[in-house]
């Protein structure tokens, strides 16, 4: 169970990084599509929340 949670935390972190990079590269490219930027921001926040929740669960299980 701990191994699965560790992998899920890593995947959530990588997904967050990917969405963050997509947003930064989109802004740097000057496309100016605010709808896409807002959608990427919402995805990033959701993925960060997921990563933190999984990490907290992992810490609770490891402490036992």
From TrEMBL:
Keywords: Membrane, Transmembrane, Transmembrane helix. InterPro entries: Hypoxia_induced_domain (IPR007667). The chain crosses the membrane at residues 42-62. This is Twin transmembrane helix small protein. Residues 1-64 form the HIG1 domain. It comes from the Bacteria.
């Amino acid at each position: 169970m701990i191994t699965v949670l560790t992998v899920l935390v890593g995947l959530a972190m990588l997904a967050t990084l990917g969405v963050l990079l997509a947003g930064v590269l989109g802004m740097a490219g000057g496309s100016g599509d605010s709808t896409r930027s807002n959608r990427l921001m919402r995805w990033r926040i959701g993925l960060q929340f997921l990563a933190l929740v999984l990490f907290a669960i992992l810490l609770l299980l490891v402490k036992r």
